[in-house]
Write a structure and sequence with these properties.
Elements lengths: L3 E3 L33 E6 L16 E3 L2 E5 L5 E8 L2 E10 L7 E3 L4 E3 L5 E5 L5 E6 L8 E5 L4 E5 L5 E5 L5 E5 L8 E9 L3 E8 L8 E6 L6 E7 L15 E6 L2 E8 L3 E9 L3 E11 L2 E8 L2 E12 L4 E13 L3 E7 L5 E11 L4 E3 L3 E5 L6 E2 L10 E8 L3 E8 L5 E10 L2 E8 L6 E11 L4 E10 L2
Parallel strand pairs: 1-22
Antiparallel strand pairs: 2-21, 3-4, 4-5, 5-6, 7-8, 8-9, 9-10, 11-12, 12-13, 13-14, 15-16, 16-17, 17-18, 19-20, 20-21, 22-23, 23-26, 24-25, 24-27, 27-28, 27-29, 30-31, 31-34, 32-33, 32-35, 35-36
Length: 465
């Protein structure tokens, strides 16, 4: 989960765990090689766990919705375990999933995988297929990694070149020439860490003759090989000799973790980075012309999908909008949101910052008071000129009977937008002119207040098609 701080005033909570984890051993064959710069976070050695027996065809390497996922490629069984930064703790459940998936990836909302062919399944948290896309030939998704930077899937078969395909159409965006030389490709993960940049991690399957699993660090734009790390040797003469499984980069707690599955053997997490907080340096709410204007700024962002804007008025918080974030950035970014659908009263606002893995954090609250208008006002429409719709705002000092109509340049009425009794306050109405021709139009507000006061105002607007 991303840390969310306001003006550096929020401290990270200390971590404590009240669940006894599985014994995390580090067999010699999963010990990182000399020169591997990423420390081990945990080592879940599941080869000798008999209940449930999960080592038959297990290739999953996934952390999703606060659970570890271990799926079997040779059946429809998917195992889910509780845990976090401390590693796997307790068995949660097993479910029947899509089945035959070799490698899993996620966009933070859904799981994706393929049965080593051109069909990529979109799955829910239970592994149930919701839809699928077909990759353009010759792409095959034995291994798969999602990139939020380009909204695509990196895919490959054992000895093919790696392709980046659209996550919506399956079309090939580019092919990484020369990556066919990375043999035994079985798992992939994608990361974009400040200081390291975009990286594609390729988990290569070894052989009995060469019982080392190869981890390739690849440039995802060019396919250039950045580094190779050999894990092993795995014990010869056994079913796990030189065998790799799935791979994925996930956020677990405040760490970016590379998960590697040694098929039928162990799930190991290696720390790529500690998350730089989404540092919220300011958050304010102000009233302008009866609308609430929210402004906030960030100094740094990591894995930031965006912000839900939430409002509370005479009840619980509700979501009133969403503003996209800037992913991972060390630059300052400013945001704003206008909430125009408010009546007089006292409001509280907060931001729900959501990262690409679905985890979230709330900001502090900002309170604002919206007062009743003291006079009748008809505002200029916005935008103006417009095509084909525009917004018209107006203010009523008291409860009134109103009409709001639109006329052409010769005085003919072309639309009645409002007619009836309206409460005092700030109001807004949308005008859709799709059925009108380009030109100059006028809109007129007439109001008769319950206190006997009357009001009439006309404004000009321009429709440009």
């Amino acid at each position: 989960m991303l840390l969310f701080v306001v003006a550096n005033s929020f401290a990270q909570d200390s971590k404590s765990y009240d669940i006894a984890p599985f014994i995390q051993t580090a067999p010699v064959d999963t010990t990182p090689p000399v020169g591997f710069p990423y420390p081990t976070l945990f080592n879940f050695y599941y080869n000798d766990i008999s209940s449930p027996q999960i080592n038959a065809g297990t290739v999953g390497a996934m952390y999703f919705q606060n659970k570890f996922y271990l799926n079997r490629w040779n059946s429809t069984v998917l195992y889910r375990y509780n845990g976090g930064e401390q590693g796997v703790t307790t068995f949660a459940d097993s479910v029947t999933y899509q089945g035959a998936i070799r490698d899993l990836t996620t966009d933070g909302t859904y799981l994706y995988g393929s049965a080593a062919n051109a069909t990529v399944y979109k799955m829910d948290a239970n592994g149930t297929a919701l839809s699928s896309i077909t990759l353009a030939s010759p792409a095959v998704a034995r291994t798969i990694a999602y990139t939020p930077d380009e909204d695509g899937f990196y895919v490959s078969n054992f000895s093919d070149n790696i392709s980046l395909c659209s996550s919506t159409t399956g079309a090939i965006i580019r092919t990484l020439a020369g990556t066919s030389a990375l043999t035994g490709k079985y798992g992939m993960g994608y990361s974009n860490i400040p200081g390291d940049g975009p990286t594609l991690w390729v988990w290569g399957q070894g052989t009995l003759a060469d019982p080392y699993n190869k981890l390739y660090k690849v440039n995802p734009q060019t396919g250039a090989l950045i580094a190779t790390y050999a894990f092993g040797p795995l014990p010869t003469g056994t079913s796990v000799s030189g065998t790799a499984g799935g791979a994925e980069v996930c956020q677990i707690g405040d760490k970016i973790v590379l998960l590697l599955n040694y098929q039928n053997y162990a799930l190991v997490g290696y720390i790529l980075s500690t998350v730089v907080p989404v540092e919220l340096t300011s958050f304010s709410a102000n009233v302008q012309n009866g609308a609430v204007v929210l402004n906030w700024a960030t100094a740094t962002e990591t894995n930031n999908q965006g912000f839900e804007v939430q409002r509370k008025f005479k009840g619980d918080y509700i979501t009133v909008g969403f503003i996209n974030g800037n992913g991972t950035s060390t630059e300052t970014h400013s945001y704003n949101f206008v909430d125009s659908k408010v009546e007089p009263g006292i409001y509280s606002y907060r931001l729900k910052q959501i990262d690409f893995s679905g985890q979230f954090e709330y900001s502090s609250e900002a309170e604002v008071s919206v007062n009743s208008p003291t006079e009748f006002v008809l505002d200029q429409n916005y935008p103006n000129p417009f095509n084909p719709s525009t917004s018209i705002k107006y203010s009523l000092a008291v409860d009134s009977k109103i009409t709001l109509k639109v006329f052409n340049v010769v005085g003919q009425e072309v639309a009645t937008l409002l007619q009836g009794n309206m409460a005092a306050g700030f109001h807004e109405v949308k005008f859709d002119a799709s059925n009108l021709n380009s030109g100059v139009y006028f809109y007129r507000l007439e109001a008769s207040g319950l206190d006997g006061k009357t009001f009439s105002s006309v404004k000009k607007m321009i429709l440009t098609k």
